[in-house]
């Protein structure tokens, strides 16, 4: 079974052969009309010139930015977000307006908030996360955007591993603050590697999935290099009413362009209305 969902490219993990600001144009050249990024700067609050350079690169490439992470700390060094990190909560809060501001300029309506590793008291961290996610959601709501929360694999101290973990956090934020614009980022790779029942998640929670990312397992390479039933799972998502983006967030087994062979160019563009 196939599906008609269209695909975006995560330009923080793909096209790494190129400087970051050249990647949106490379994605467009490869036939994609939508991209997403992890936080593309070294600091929570970059200079105006850096922000303008990023915005210009997206616009000049003629692609749509469909996802952007809030600042998540030193990702190569093992950080996985600041949302629940007491000593760095201020950086997260300072970053919120910058991130939403970029989204406002570029029409991006999905912002991924990595929860953060366990560092101190779990209770303290979880209470802080509720405050910070509510703050981020209120800011995102000003432009009609959604804050995404995702399970992550490969990070031992990251506490959100399953869809149920994430939905529990979202429910706590909603109960405490009343904000509604939070959604599950269903990374089918992370869910599968963590042992979640991906088919059950799709069957029971498609209505709470706000964004989808894919990679195959083992290896986190492009679809077809592993054993995950990604096409069937995406078809099930679509059948259940999901009509959002499916972002390619994988490590290409060879070069980025060679890794797209599994995906016809007709499925790389914007969704039909």
Structure description:
This protein has eight helices and eight strands; from the N terminus they run βαβαβαβαβαβααβαβ. The longest helix has 20 residues, at 122-141. The protein has an eight-stranded parallel barrel, surrounded by four helices. The protein has 273 residues and is an alpha/beta fold.
Key phrases:
8 strands, eight-stranded parallel β-barrel, globular, 273 residues, alpha/beta, 36% helix
Number of strands: 8
Distance between the termini: 22 Å
Radius of gyration (CA) equals: 17 Å
Give the low-pLDDT segments: none
Give the topology, please:
Layout: E1 7-10, H1 23-29, E2 34-37, H2 48-61, E3 64-69, H3 89-106, E4 110-112, H4 122-141, E5 146-149, H5 163-177, E6 182-187, H6 188-193, H7 198-205, E7 209-214, H8 230-239, E8 246-248
Parallel strand pairs: 1-2, 1-8, 2-3, 3-4, 4-5, 5-6, 6-7, 7-8
Question: What is shown here, in short?
Answer:
The protein has 273 residues and is of the alpha/beta class. The protein has helices spanning 23-29, 48-61, 89-106, 122-141, 163-177, 188-193, 198-205, 230-239; strands at 7-10, 34-37, 64-69, 110-112, 146-149, 182-187, 209-214, 246-248. It is built from eight helices and eight strands.
